[in-house]
Write a structure and sequence with these properties.
mainly alpha, 3% strand, two-stranded antiparallel sheet
């Protein structure tokens, strides 16, 4: 069975050899962009700080809304009190939860859009001018911040709104799914059905994320709105499915290797530091936490490479379509 699958895979590679060559060239170009635009790694830091400030403000507002209503004393000895919510307060709490998720999705979209615009400006920059770092071309990160506010804020908000709806549906399903499992007494068929639906929702979430990203790329290239950009980007992906699949596959391999190397090296350094500073019998648990945190942080920054690779591929394909016309 494995030999049959390997044979089919080899046949697909041979039939799509030109697409594979384009994908390798795109990955190499994305690596040049990432090496030439090292300052782009500060963009996730900036949006993380903005998200942290938004979270602090949201918590303060949430406490103010949660305190609306009559206060009753539950126990004089323990000094515990409770606030009775009416229907309006309950709706306000759900509205604030939805709003916070929308804000987080919007910041994620803005982060991607800044990287996209930066990659586009680098791709179309003058490559004939000598550069100090040896890599021709230069990008302007400032354009991404300006365009996201001046020209495409509504489109980014709409795309993040769709992503927020998917998150809400997933949260509601998780709650209903747990209640169904409890009501059926941990029935195996119910667990299997819940797992299948969870898988479908996760696939739909990934689809919306991928479609949003490519819609943002098309928006930055054409200046169109979200809906038309999403439709045109979807058609472009269908027409060049092999190229997009190879770019995603090769980029995923490189990103996994980079994240794994960063996590392992960080864990190894932490192991030397722990052995030198402490005399703990077992350092497995703290090293495991270090590995997870370093992997999560590396995933945040390595994702820039994936976004830039998709952006450069769309730039190449749109140039080909324009030249063909």
């Amino acid at each position: 069975m494995a030999l049959i699958a390997a044979g089919i895979y080899l046949l697909v590679m041979v039939c799509s050899f030109n697409s594979l060559r384009v994908a390798i060239a795109v990955i190499e170009t994305a690596a040049d962009y990432f090496a030439d635009t090292k300052r782009i790694i500060f963009v996730p830091f900036l949006y993380f700080f903005i998200g942290l400030c938004a979270f602090v403000g949201w918590v303060a507002a949430l406490l103010c809304v949660a305190s609306i209503g009559p206060i009753t004393v539950d126990s004089i000895e323990t000094q515990t009190k409770s606030v009775e919510w009416d229907s309006q307060t309950t709706y306000a709490m759900w509205y604030m939860l939805f709003g916070f998720l929308w804000i987080i999705a919007f910041l994620i979209s803005c982060n991607e859009f800044v990287v996209i615009v930066s990659a586009i400006t680098w791709y179309y920059s003058d490559k004939t001018v000598p550069d100090d770092d040896g890599i021709p071309g230069d990008s302007d990160v400032r354009f991404g911040f300006w365009w996201s506010i001046r020209y495409h804020m509504g489109s980014l908000a709409f795309g993040s709104f769709l992503l927020t709806l998917v998150w809400i549906i997933k949260f509601i399903f998780e709650y209903v799914g747990e209640k169904m499992i409890e009501a059926t007494g941990n029935n195996g068929c119910t667990k299997c059905l819940i797992a299948c639906i969870r898988c479908c929702l996760d696939c739909f979430d990934r689809f919306i994320r991928y479609l949003n990203r490519n819609a943002y790329i098309y928006m930055a290239l054409s200046g169109e709105g979200f809906c038309s950009s999403a439709l045109n980007a979807f058609i472009l992906i269908l027409k060049n499915a092999a190229k997009f699949a190879f770019v995603e596959g090769i980029a995923d391999v490189f990103m996994f290797l980079a994240k794994f190397f960063i996590s392992c090296s960080t864990t190894a350094v932490s192991w030397f530091i722990l052995n030198a500073m402490t005399s703990v019998d077992s350092v497995f648990f703290p090293l495991f936490i270090v590995f997870l945190l370093s992997y999560m942080i590396a995933s945040t920054f390595i994702a820039i490479f994936d976004v830039s690779a998709n952006t450069i591929l769309q730039c190449y394909l749109m140039d080909k379509e324009i030249a063909a016309q």
